[in-house]
Amino acid sequence: MIDFRSDTVTRPSEEMRRLMADAQVGDDVYGDDPSVNRLEEYAADLAGFEAALFTSSGTQANLLALMSHCQRGDEYLCGQQAHNYRFEGGGAAVLGSIQPQPVENNPDGTLPLDKLAAQIKPDDIHFAQTRLLSLENTIGGKVLPQEYLAQAQRFAFDHGLKIHLDGARVFNAAVKQQLPLSAIAQHFDSLTICLSKGLGAPVGSLLVGDEALINKARRWRKMLGGGMRQAGILAAAGHYALEHNVERLAEDHANALHLASELSQLEELEVDMAQVQTNMVFARLKGQDPRALQHHLAQRGIIISAANTLRLVTHLDVDRADMDKLVTETKAFFASNR
Ligand SMILES: *Cc1c(COP(=O)(O)O)cnc(C)c1O
Q: Residues with Cβ within 6 A of ligand 1?
């Protein structure tokens, strides 16, 4: 099956599986797993930070960041579209007693600094205390401009806030701009990285920060049931992903661009080419039934999510021929439904 639903669907390669099988392991709760320790050091170095923490998921890594920067009754600023506001079950509120304060994202994914400033609460017993600004890069496949990151960092500093990056797909942003991870990470006090999306590891994310933050996060991770034992088997996959699957993200970006430009030729679809910056294509159906298209494609070995605006994600398990197959079959569906 050719799966366009997400870059989370990637399967570990033969070589990755071999490294997992051969990984040296120990009890990571005792700090004894050499493969986990090696991964954490490697990731911290790539980001230019002191420390990193291997986590079970991106959701967990974001939650640990929020709980380590903020205390009960504090508040974080984020976008209405932020994954750690919308798609993480309200975990910061439920488990951290931390209140989100979202503001509307600009079309390019940035958050307007004047709107953020207006939401920062004065020091008054009526209000939650605003502690943190959380950004996301890439967001909806879009890359936040480096200049904006510098402005946001200065803004946070000037207002006494910490600044966190949900960098689930930060390597897509880095590769797109031909920058090292550290060039993006330098603008933040912490960042999360998903190993299990376009990088192709089966499980795992990282939280990166300074020693003090990571020590706090390690404590919360244990409390939340995320202390894994011989996790080196998973860390080995993540390490392989960081060493082998970063530069190749450029292929996913080229495939997405190819797919988008082909689909934009079809009059039944509207594709916003400005939004195609990394590995995501958004195509709006002008009246055709998304479920009927989904069904048609599924019978031909292609999986998509059904929605009026299709989100098609490229990744290391789909190649150029798969793009063309999707285009051909989508055309055939429209032709039979005119
Ligand atoms: C996927 C994703 C996460 C969460 O990662 P999981 O490993 O699925 O929990 C967080 N933020 C963003 C932007 C994501 O895309």
A: 57-59, 62, 83, 136, 166, 168, 194, 196, 205
